[in-house]
Structures are given as structure tokens and as C-alpha cells.
Amino acid sequence: MLIKGEKASNISYGSTLASDGFVGNKFDFMLSNPPYGKTWKIDESAIVEDRGKKGKEHIKDPRFQVGLPSISDGQLLFLVNMISKMKTESELGSRIATVHNGSALFTGDAGQGESNIRKMILENDLLECIIALPTNIFYNTGIPTYVWILSNRKEARRRGKVQLINATSMYQKLRKNLGSKNCELTPDDIKKITEIYMNFEESDTSKIFDYREFGYYKICVERPLRLKVVLSDENVMKLRFPKGITDEAMWVYERFGEDVYISLEQRKKEIEFHFEKEESPLSSATKNKLFDVNLWNCHREYIEIGKRMQKHFNEGEYLDFNRFKKEAEKFFKGENLSKAEQTYILSIFSEKCEEAEKVIAKESKGEVVYEVDSELRDTENVPLTEDIQTYFEREVLHYVPDAWIDESKTQIGYSISFNRYFYTYTPPRSLEEIAQEIATLQEESEGLLEAFLHE
Q: For the domain that residue 168 is a member of, what is the CATH number?
């Protein structure tokens, strides 16, 4: 810049992300080739406090209020910085051209920083065009790269639209590689790309989309917990072992038997040595439970309660957990158990079962809310252009009729799957063609093995 006669005052020393060297300045045109795949960890303290901590994260720099990408890749922060410097009062506004790799198009799920940045850009109708460049066009990388063109003064025909240009085949090979660079754009290639951009028409190399086509609702699909109660001898014996240290307690009981109800102090070193040898050293919390004689005896009493439950209800299976729980609560009144102890004992006797009734969490004014089975929780990405309920009924309820949407967790995300829009289907060869090729190869190779062995 200095060699070309630019003023030294127009150059600000330091990190673009950590310190805004041009506070209050707005620009007509901005060009950048930011580093991608590069961590912004060194700038983190200047940008945000308590990054990633729910309810505590505080973004200090007003340029980046929209959201923060993964700490391992700060390229989109450079783009957000430029957007913060677009002119909003002038007639022509501002234009931006910036080069990114593919991750800027699609990394980050709905609600995450990268997706929120794309959401801001698309919903504010700033993105005009993305141009896919030929691979190996840069000196130090061969990965696919893309030019993003942004404007806050789109012409009428471009409003609400985004153009994608596939220029990956528009290049000239170099006679000699320069690092990773083995091709370049000729003046004719640049002219052709520019014409495609200016014409703003659909073709094999140009696709035009409504910006909403890149968006989706990420919905959380829940299914009810279904439990059966099994009053078996095996489950009664499970009551012997404290929750959270079941595996450790099982080994100790198998090794030392009834001694666990008297004292394990003399066995402490042996027990600790065993788990260290197994590369699973005991935490202080686990030790406190494992060597607590009172806790062991408490669980021995749970076994007796379990046996009394078997006699009271009859040993067997119960597919309606809700009804059994109500009856069990009456039984527990005579056992002097806390709510936590009752819940623990019921959990030991409970197993998931697809044929069982749905477990009720609460009932209010005729409305029933079911317990969620977190292991069956799933998510679906519903296009913004489609009604959520219509999609849900077609793609989910048709297969799992007991599912529902947790609407409190619905989020909007944006992702641009560039290659998908230019994918050309190539049908596989017919079986007849493949069979003929195999037959031809067999004819050509006939006798070769025998000739080789005789030689």
C-alpha cells in the first residue's frame, strides 16, 4: 500500500479482530482475503467474556453482537467486521467482496455462531452472489474457495435473491506450478464470470434462489418414555448397590462379601490399588460412598423392602407404570421412605418397553404431559419454505405416531450447500453393458494363467 502511494495513516497496526483500528469509519468498497481455518483464541479476551457459558456469555465488541463462530476458525468475524463498516445513509451504500473456504457456507448448526452470521446476512438481504473459484488457484492451499459479494443497495431484480456462480471450470493451466497454485483466471475468464454475474440469469453455471431456500427450522422431536415394572429377584438384588457407583460397588461386594456391612477400612488400600491398576482411579466422592458402612446397610434394607414389594404386588411385570406408581406410593407410606428413596427403588424395578403405557409427567385441566425419553430425542431440519406441521405429519408422525415437537427448542438456521445445487446426476451403466465388459475381459485373459504357469 505504501509503495502505491497510500497514506500511512490509512494503515492500522494490530489485530483486526481484537482492536477496531477504524472506529466510526464507513467505506464504499471493501475487499478482503481473511485467514480461514485459523484460531482467534488470541483475540478472545478482547471480544468476549465467558464464551460459550449459557446465560453468562457477554460479547464486548459491538461489531460481533450477531454471534461468534467456533474458536478454531475466525474467518466470518472478518466479514462481520466489514459489514459493520457499510454505509447506510449514502445513496449507493457499500459493496464487499471477500474470499472464504467452504466451511463459511455450511459449518455451525442452527443457533450457533456461524449459522447466526449467515442468518443476519441473508435476512438483511446483503448477499448478492457467491462465486465458486477453481481449486488450486492460490499459492498455499488447494481447497475449494468462494468469493462472496455483498451489497446493502441491491438493484430491484436482485432483492430477496442470491446468485450462485459455478466458475470451477473457468481457468487456464500454468506451465509450472507455483506452490499449490497450478491454474489462473485469464482476462477472458474474468470477463465471462463478470458477464454471468451482470446478466443475472439462470444457466448451467448460474443459479438464482430466494434467500429463504437456504434456511431451515431445526425442530426438536420428542417421544414419550414407556416403562414397565419388573418385580424380579434379579432387580431386587440390584438394590444392594448405591446409584452412581454401581460397578465399583459390585466388584467390592463380589470380592469382600458381607464385610461391606461391617467395615472396609482395612481393605481400603487393596480396593484403591485395584482400581488404579484398572486405570480407573476412584474419585474422592466415590471413595466417600464406597467406604460408607451406613450407606451399605441402608441399601441392604432396600433389598428387604424390595422383597416385601414382591409379596405385596406379586412377582411379575406391569406394563402400566402410572397405575403401579400410584399403588406403590400407598405401599411406601408404611416403609417410612423419602421421595428420593421411593424414586430410586422404582427406578431399579423399571425398564423401557415399547409395549408399555406412556409415562405421565403431569396432568392439568384435562391436559396430559408425558415424560420424555431423551434417548429417542431427535431433530429434523424443515425448509423455511415449508409448513412445519405439514412436514412433521408427513416425515415423522407417519412413522412414529406418538411423537411431538418441543416448540420451545425450535431454531432457524441457514446453510448453503453449494455443490448440491450444481450436481449433475450420471446414471450408472446398465447391467448388460457391465456383463459384456466382463465377458470381453474373460476372453482376453483366457489362457494367460496357464501360459504363465508353463513358463
A: 3.40.50.150
Tens-digit pLDDT profile for residues 170-186: 999 999 998 889 999 99
99 falls within a domain: yes
CB atoms near residue 324 (< 10 Å): 21
Q: In 3-state terms, what secondary structure has residue 198?
A: helix
Q: What is the pTM of this model?
A: 0.83
DSSP letter for each residue of 42-66: GGHHHHEESTT-TTT-EE-SGGGTT
185 & 255 share domain: no
Range of the domain at 252: 227-370
- For residue 154, give Cα distances in angstroms to 96, 121, 127, 150, 431: 12, 13, 9, 9, 52
- Domain assignment present for residue 341? The answer is yes
Q: What is the DSSP string of 228-244?
A: EEE--HHHHHHTTS-TT
What is the DSSP-derived secondary structure letter of residue 41? G
Our count of domains for the chain comes to: 2
The kind and range of the H/E element at 131 are strand 127-132
Task: For 253-271, write each residue's pLDDT tens digit.
Answer: 999 999 999 999 899 999 9
Q: How far is CA 381 from CA 223, 323, 415, in A?
A: 17, 37, 11
